[in-house]
Amino acid sequence: MYTIVLVVKIYSARCSGPSAPPYYLLLDFGIQYINYSKSKQLAALLLIMETQMNSSNSIPDRTACFQLMERYQMLPHIREHCHIVSRVALALANELNKNGEQLNLHEIEAAALLHDITKTKSIHSRENHAETGAHLLRSLGYERIAQIVNAHISVPVMDASGRVTEEEVVNYADKRVRHSTVVSLEQRFEDLMQRYGRHRESQHYIMLQKIKTRTLEDKIFSRIHGSPAHLPELIAPG
What we know:
Blueprint: E1 2-14, E2 23-35, H1 39-53, H2 62-71, H3 76-98, H4 105-114, H5 119-125, H6 129-139, H7 143-150, H8 166-175, E3 177-178, E4 181-182, H9 185-196, H10 200-221, H11 231-234
Antiparallel strand pairs: 1-2, 3-4
């Protein structure tokens, strides 16, 4: 059985001329013939529309994030982890903004919810899920979210005296959540070492990240009231 799917691609482009409106829409209509039973093909075609409608600076809202979790078959325990990481990240970001930082809360929430978007696949493929997650989100038009997700495993290059970045907040929040429980850095890295420190090279990498994350922790908590031990008290119920 075959069906006809009308695919509408929507592109935005800037007009020229002093009296022209800033943007106009270009519509590209195409008819695709596919086997209806091949649901993955149908989903891919529909995804074309979504991708083309997203600008490079767009941010998926919570509903869109949950839909992406479903689409890419994020396992329930990974979803729960991402949900807790988002609460931790938002709690930190709100406190930092109260004390003079200018963090984008929408970017932080979306990136925290989606930071493990390809983790389910990586369990079997052993791929770097920060890189593949970023690649996926970039292909969907979420460039800024992709940048933050790409930096959630390794501590990003840091300026200790500079502003706290969205990448740093999400990275640190992820390092404070073991599965679905907020823990200390010591507990989190002990767990990481047990799970991933199979070889000397990986053990060295984990220890290096622990040192860098301690430095990041000092940077964040030097700008808010309280200590790392008080983090659970900052997290809003949800």
